[in-house]
Amino acid sequence: MDELKILAVDTATEACSAALMVGDTLFSRWEEAPRDHTRKILPMVQALLDEAGLSLDELDAIAFGRGPGSFTGVRIGISVAQGLAFGAGVPMIGVSTLAAMAQGAHKLEGAEQVLAAIDARMDEVYFGHYALVDGVMTLVGEEVVSEPAALVQARDKLTGAVSCVGTGFETYGETLGGLADVLMASQVRFPAAADMLPLARQAWFAGEAVPVEQATPVYLRDKVTWKKLPGRE
């Protein structure tokens, strides 16, 4: 059986990353690079392919950070992934950025229960609760965008110690602390393409890869109220 080869790219947050799985071998690049994603992501991809000695058309699929996250960042990621997948003639796999952070906490710290929250601006967070199932972080309930206080009021408190990842806990940690008896801070602040690969692999074997034209982002927030700057009303 040929080794499964999946390339993953993510630009949905301040981090920019790419990773390549060739069977059990992993190649990866990651950098915190706000507002510099368009310049960095393709060189990262090329470096990975060169390191692995592969060309794009040898891949089985291309995974991408589908969001939630920065609107611009999510669009950059899916556009780059679609361009690569179209050129290579391979399908695509969308992976939640929240799930990727939870997977990162499991890999780095052995976490088995994780709350992931990305600062969504406008006093809201993108939020998801994940639990480990067969080595992969699996969503419990739904991913949502919510005011932190409303989120705490709407959810039953989790018992025991729970790991927390993402910038949402840095910004609203005092409020979000009410989600669990004990919240253990993780070193994971942003998603990484390398942590998307176990999720992408699971999706591949579940038959969830889609044609390029069917790949879609997940913003969670459907409508945005743009606040005009002073003097520009």
Structure write-up:
- The chain has 233 residues and is α/β, with parallel strands linked by helices.
- The protein has two domains: 5-96 and 191-214, 2-Layer Sandwich (Nucleotidyltransferase, domain 5); 97-185, Nucleotidyltransferase, domain 5.
- Helix content is 33%, strand content 32%.
- The protein is built from six helices and ten strands.
- It has a five-stranded mixed beta sheet with strand order 3-2-1-4-5, with helices on both faces. A five-stranded mixed beta sheet has the order 8-7-6-9-10.
- β1 (5-10) and β2 (15-22) form a beta hairpin.
- α3 packs across α6.
- It starts with a strand and ends in a 28-residue tail after the last helix.
Count of the separate structural domains: 2
pLDDT < 50 stretches: 223-233
The N- to C-terminal Cα distance equals 62 Å
CATH architecture descriptor of the largest domain = 2-Layer Sandwich
Q: How many H/I helices?
A: 6
Topology:
Layout: E1 5-10, E2 15-22, E3 25-32, H1 37-52, E4 61-67, H2 71-88, E5 92-96, H3 97-109, E6 113-119, E7 125-133, E8 136-146, H4 148-154, E9 158-165, H5 167-176, E10 180-185, H6 193-205
Parallel strand pairs: 1-4, 4-5, 6-9, 9-10
Antiparallel strand pairs: 1-2, 2-3, 6-7, 7-8
Helix pairs in contact: 3-6
